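[Amino acid chain]
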Amino acid sequence: MTSPVAISVIANLDDGYERDDTTGVVAADVELLIADFGTFTTDALIRFQSVDIPAGATILTCTMAVRSIAADADDPELAIHCEDVDDCPAIIESNGNISARARTTAFTAWSATSIGTSVVNTPDFSSALQEVIDRGGWAENQDIGVILDNTSSGGKVLNLEPFDNAGTDEAILNVTYSEGGGGIRNPFGGPMVLRNPLGA
């Protein structure tokens, strides 16, 4: 069985960015920057709550729908990881709260210019999400963090719409997956019990 999942950012501490200077982490802001400004760079974290993917699932596709909020800041040059943790915590506005988080070994590079200010999909990063779902402590309806690490050294800037902006195009995680073992899923939760009507 193949199942789709689409989850939006729902809180202001679910997305933010960290500057590598003394400013540190910025979460409650109208910008979400992944950039090389010359004097400092920024990386970002986007957290999706209650991700409805069961343990043992096989990730088939995984992208984010995002929108640049500025035509002069629409040049992604970054690596897409997931946070390598069972249940991603909310952002705290303190130095190191994003940069110190563990990254998945798997990642997907995103390099483009002038993507515009309409909603676009990131490249697929199924392998990074699969690494989290395969963790022994992953359970359905825990939280996933997607980390966008700047890889530019040439002044590229991407400014995405965050939850705190006045718009409605905060990031959406779009995933399709198949469940391991090909079993039957109980729509009410918990294990599915099949009873033989003949009593055997």
